[in-house]
Amino acid sequence: FDAASKIIVLNDSMKKYYLQNYKFHPNKIEVIPSWCDPDKIYKLSRNDNKFLIKNNLKNKFIILYSGNHGRCHDLISILGASLILKNHNDIKFLFIGAGAQKNRIKKLANELNLYNCIFLPYQDKEELIYSLGSANLAIVSMSKGSQNYISPSKLYGHLATASPIAIISPANSYLEKLVNSENFGKWFDNGDSEAIANWILYLRSNPDKAEEFGLNGLNYFLENATSKIILKKYKNLFLI
Fold it and tell me: pTM of the predicted model, to two decimals?
């Protein structure tokens, strides 16, 4: 780190952590977030979504967690919400991906008879636009204590598809601040499954509000986190 001209981190929480623990000059650390390519991932009509048709989900309200089921992601809070809503047959919790917690979460869902939970492997890259586009609500989560160390890149794909987003994270995380400032969804503290479940019911009953959240997120993404915008930030950094 001392030998580097610049250190690139993915969010403001990471920058703050480095400044507090390594005493670098603030000018040495640049915040450049992850990104998504809007030519490959974008908003689709649900009527044209072949993923929904193939998996018999077209008439379901889909709560999507897509990507790494890692140690630093809060999946238990999602499972808690699915337990509360287990008798709502039109609401499905869709887990796509793999990782250290996948088997544990599947086992818990089976033990609790959570038939509203569906587990699928990672989808082929060309199918990603359809699987991400299946979400009526997308979930991005961080476990307690991880807020200075991870920055879920899945956020940007969900923003690109104009999905409303539930953020589950410790209080005062950069994700909480971002969703509150840009109004593309709602923040929930780790473990507050009841509040998550209630908001799912609210969105299901208020599709216009859900669409508003989604469009807010899409606008933020197009102005701040497309591949072209982020690559320009890297290019400018190397030209300094």
Answer: 0.96
First and final C-alpha spacing in the chain: 18
Phi-psi region of 188 (alpha: psi -120 to 50; beta: other; left: phi over 0): beta
Q: What is the pLDDT of residues 127-182, one digit of tens each?
A: 999 999 999 999 999 999 998 999 999 999 999 999 999 999 999 999 999 999 99
Alpha-carbon distances of 28 from 11, 19, 66, rounded to whole Å: 14, 10, 34
> Residues 98, 200, 75, CA angle at the centre, nearest 5°?
25
**Cβ contacts of 201-207, under 8 Å, gap ≥ 24:** 201/85, 201/88, 203/136, 203/137, 203/164, 204/61, 204/90, 204/91, 204/136
Give 74's contacts (C-beta < 8 A, 6+ positions apart): 141, 142, 143, 144, 168, 169, 190
